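Fold this complex.
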Amino acid sequence: MREQVYFEDIAVDAALPMLAKEPVTLQDLVKWAAASEDFTEFHYDEAAAKQRGFPAPVTNGPYKAALIARALTDWMGPAGVLKKLACQYRRIDVVGDNLYCKGLVTGKRVADGENLVECEVWTENGKGERTTTGTAVVALPSRAPIGADVPSAPASLITDEMRRAYKLGEVVGRFTYDVDYNWIHRYATAIGDENPLWHDRAVAESEGCFGEVIAPPFFWSALDPIETKDLEMEDYYLESVPFKRTGGGNAFTDVEYFLPIRAGDRVTVSTSFSEIYERQGRAGHLIFRVRESELRNGRGELVARTRCGHVLAFDLSQRREG
Amino acid sequence: MAEQLYYEDIAVGAELPPLIKHPTTEQLVRYAGAVNDYARIHYDYGYARHRGFPGVIVHGLFKAACMGQLVTDWAGPKAWVKKASAQYRGIDEPFHDMACKGKVVDKYIREGERLVDVEVWTENDKGQVTTKGAATILFPCRSEETIP
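Structure:
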């Protein structure tokens, strides 16, 4: 068994020790079939696999998840607890292929008295393709009792007042923006993107995949009501946080398009706050506010969904002057 | 304009041709105007220093947009970016080179769409990764030239 790892020793962005299976054998899968009582033939019968169009018996998805779980439990040591593991099976692996379980620490936080480490985990085949992707949460012991190093630190800076201010899950603002060719052109000019798709109607019409001018991938941020200050971030309660604020800003932004934003679209953006949470990061005690927006065009069609995280950092060792 | 890439031509593990950007304060001000984001840390040196930054800093979403350009330059006009994301890890200052880089991590067909996942990031002139991101791109294939 590995030595115990402690919460304090874990660095965000650190790689988890890899577990290699070189290769996955037919015997492994037969043992898995027996242990899991999943006797689907194409997992162990070469003829059944070939008949289904697979080159060889297919490695069970849950077996891959189990290997990831093993990599995690090997790493976290006997006092660690695997709290959560979610896997998506993205590609097949077959008998004879090498399989590598890998992971990365993405965050640390203390919640309900537990020291939690969040990880991104995946399996790779011999070609370096990710065949399984997932996320895991592991609880680790601490070298000291929780909060012992900062005796005056509260478990949480998030108050009920704060949660109420954000009306989580409710639409808190709806704004309409008219997107035209000039706006797209100005935006692309600002970032120094000279691709004629954004600057030349004729090129967009003849070469572009939609036969007209569409907006570049991150143009939606021009329609984000928080960035444009059409909607306030409800920051007033921050005055009541008794620690020094050491920084803050955008943490992440995601977009998924269902239709392009076209020049000429009238886009209605509906925004709600979806989450408030805390974690420990390199910059101190962090509070994240996550907002989600839905963009619809003038015909009411769903164009895109966006998700943006804004972070505030506090130094719990520095009390703020009253 | 870049030549069109087709789904068949894309190899998992391939790197995107790097895009070197050199953001200027003029670009930051133009960007502020284009997106109506007038946060002062992006154009007011005194205010930015007061906030603890070495000077004005590049908008996170400006960097995301540059990663978007990296992807659209590479993918060609008939490809469509369906998903894009960015995480902001460190600040960038204007008048410093910022390298946008990426690589293909997966390709697959889902609901009839030929999709390619790329991992992208920006590096400052010290080689530190200041932004990380990802995108999923819908590609045309050689046999059917337009996306339905």
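DSSP finds six helices and ten strands in chain A.
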